[in-house]
Amino acid sequence: MYRDPEAASPGAPTRDVLLVSAIITVSLSVTIVLCGLCHWCQRKLGKRYKNSLETVGTPDSGRGRSEKKAIKLPAGGKAVNTAPVPGQTPHDESDRRTEPRSSVSDLVNSLTSEMLMLSPGSEEDEAHEGCSRENLGRIQFSVGYNFQESTLTVKVMKAQELPAKDFSGTSDPFVKIYLLPDKKHKLETKVKRKNLNPHWNETFLFEGFPYEKVVQRVLYLQVLDYDRFSRNDPIGEVSIPLNKVDLTQMQTFWKDLKPCSDGSGSRGELLLSLCYNPSANSIIVNIIKARNLKAMDIGGTSDPYVKVWLMYKDKRVEKKKTVTKKRNLNPIFNESFAFDIPTEKLRETTIIITVMDKDKLSRNDVIGKIYLSWKSGPGEVKHWKDMIARPRQPVAQWHQLKA
Question: Biased-composition ranges for Basic and acidic residues (predicted)?
Answer without folding.
Answer: 90-100
